[in-house]
Amino acid sequence: MASSEKDALVHALEHHELTSALQRGPQYKSCLAQELDVSSKTVYRRAHKLIESGLVKRCQNGYRLSNLGQLYCNLISELWNISGNISEIKPLLRDASLQKYPPYWFFAEIRTVCATEETPLRPIEELEAVFKNAEKLHGLLPVVASRFVKLLRRRVEASELSLELIVKSAAIDKLRQRDDEGDGMLMRDAQLWQIESVPYGLIIVIEPKPSVFLVMHNENGMVTGIIENQNPVATTWALQKFDQYLTDATSANWQLPA
After folding, report:
1. Hey, how many other C-beta atoms are within 10 angstroms of the C-beta on 87?
2. What does DSSP say about strands 136-141 and 111-114: parallel, antiparallel, or unpaired?
């Protein structure tokens, strides 16, 4: 980022109350002073900085935002909204075992379900409902709970669900061991892939209603919460992320016993 762009962003952040007021339209200096509870001299000084940064322009009605100023205002408002959401889920993020994080904008429009002392199984039950209702689903999973495997296997075998999973190799080995012991843990009718490392749990419901679930696990592999985003942009990003890991994955289906 160039120095001038940094200065513009700093001024936009520093005087966000003023630029936010101008988002409603042009305003006179006296009106801004009254709304912001400052002197007209202070408004003039702040507006002058914003004018020098290209964020505000003078007009017949006082001051107005430039196109650049409107863009920065929208960006800052979005970042503040995201920051508020991240603050709410901070305990969940702190305790989760994540190798990477999704892009910041993923947290703009979310619904969160967290495990608590009173309801420790709530996120697990929420995921179970997702698996019961999905008709087409892709997943990127560092761990796989046996209760989910059995549910998904039944639905796949009944032709109720089209399923494609990329699973961490260590989790595949555990499933294969459980299957050898007679627990029926492997899904022979699903497209199953394995990979050495998975950054986070990602469930992508494609049909009937697209939605993305970021699945949070602790170090013991227990689901501690889920973060849902129904924005189509999130679905597109998640599918691209899935395809990216798919290029490095190897099929696990050929190793399954008949």
Report:
1. 9
2. unpaired
pLDDT band at 129 (very low <50, low <70, confident <90, very high): very high
Query: At 162, is the secondary structure helix, strand, or coil?
Result: strand
Q: Is-cis flag, bond preceding 199, omega within 30?
A: no
Do 8 and 54 contact (CB within 8 A), yes or no?
yes
Single-letter residue type at 146? S
| Cα Rg of the chain, angstroms | 25
Q: Which of 203, 144, 204, 192 is nearest to 170 (CA)?
A: 144
* Residues 88-98 as b or e (16 or more Cβ within 10 Å = b): ebeebeeebbe
pLDDT tens digit sequence for 33-88: 998 899 999 999 999 988 988 889 999 889 998 988 888 888 787 777 776 666 66
pTM of the model: 0.69
- Going along the chain from its start, the domains and CATH numbers come out as 3-77 (1.10.10.10), 89-255 (3.30.870.10)
Mean residue pLDDT of the chain comes to 81
- Specify the DSSP class assigned to residue 27: B
Q: Could you give the CA distance from residue 180 to residue 186 in angstroms, rounded to a whole number?
A: 9
What's residue 78's pLDDT?
Answer: 75
Spacing of C-alpha 74 from chain mean position: 19
